[in-house]
Amino acid sequence: MSLKGVRMKKDQILTDEIKELNRKGNLTYQENLKLHKKVDLLCQENAELRKKAWEERDASEANKSSHPPYTLSNGYDLHGPIHLQLSQPQPHSNEPPPKSMKLG
């Protein structure tokens, strides 16, 4: 086989390899497009489900806050401001006043 024949054979092999790689590249590109479309659809579905879950959670919390289960309403605002202050203990009516303690 002459040098020219070897070169032509080499060129043909390389050309065939390039064509095969281009074909595989195109298939990979098409698969990538399909996967991107799937990801986009899944992201959209995920966003819709997340929105629905938040709406249901908000509705559930609104129901809980307006009608807590197993509670009775006495007409007072249970969630209104509460003002607490410290005071000295008051003796009960049936107890004698405490004697002052001797220290030392």
From TrEMBL:
<dbReference type="Pfam" id="PF01486">
    <property type="entry name" value="K-box"/>
</dbReference>
<feature type="domain" description="K-box">
    <location>
        <begin position="1"/>
        <end position="39"/>
    </location>
</feature>
<protein>
    <recommendedName>
        <fullName>K-box domain-containing protein</fullName>
    </recommendedName>
</protein>
<feature type="compositionally biased region" description="Pro residues">
    <location>
        <begin position="94"/>
        <end position="104"/>
    </location>
</feature>
<dbReference type="GO" id="GO:0005634">
    <property type="term" value="C:nucleus"/>
</dbReference>
<feature type="compositionally biased region" description="Polar residues">
    <location>
        <begin position="62"/>
        <end position="74"/>
    </location>
</feature>
<dbReference type="InterPro" id="IPR002487">
    <property type="entry name" value="TF_Kbox"/>
</dbReference>
<dbReference type="GO" id="GO:0003700">
    <property type="term" value="F:DNA-binding transcription factor activity"/>
</dbReference>
<feature type="region of interest" description="Disordered">
    <location>
        <begin position="53"/>
        <end position="104"/>
    </location>
</feature>
